[in-house]
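Quick one: structure tokens for this chain, please?
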Amino acid sequence: MNPIEVSEKSGPVILGQPHGGIFIPPNLSSRLNERGRKLADTDWHINRLYKGLLPGATVVQATFSRYIIDANRDPSGNSLYPGKNTTGLCPIIDFEGEPIYNEGKEPDEEEIEQRRQNFHAVYHAALAMQIERVRKHHGIVLFFDCHSIRSRLPFLFEGLLPDLNLGTNNSTTCGIEIEETAIEVCSTAEGYTSVLNGRFKGGWTTRYYGKPSEGIHAIQLEIAQQTYMEETSPWSYRIELANELRNNLKTLLTSLEEVVTGLIKSKSKTQNA
């Protein structure tokens, strides 16, 4: 099993999908309890949701479940949201705060490190390579991190999550033109609620790679799953809802690509002046 899939294209945008995978090796599956084997915290259908929306975009997708290791967590294990409930680099509880392993079957530090090397590091090696490839070709790259989550999770946040949750770590991971364009498109998407840097401000990946001064812009979109699927097992994809959402995602990605293309042209003119 290859832990990642990469679709390499020539455009300036890269889509990251670290949480859409569902692969669990048999020796781990037998250690998960009934709750854990449901893989409830997966970003269900995320690849299908974004497929074909931006033909020139490179896609880096993890095929392994986040219950093996979370590719959007700091490899040191430090929390992204100190003082708030969350799940860690190697989750032992789910988004409702409940154990996902049979008692006494949780991974120890040695196993966690092995998983980090075999999955987390492999995903990020591929992602870093694509970011550098695209930046080298265009001079500027936009990394767009694709996520989704159930809309009601009291363990993580109060009430109903907005539909479209943009994260730029308080405007530090991308240029203002990119952030403003994302806000404009999401806030005017009819029938959807949105927020910038609310409960989700951008995960470790967005924060780690986002270096606008070096030509690497990063932004995360966390989508409430009720906008395109059933939020209970078997996590069914709702085609009519999903198609409506896809139309808005296409507008968002196309608009962002146009902004990045403008930045690339502006940089080229400055260098040639």
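The chain is about 35% helix and 15% strand.
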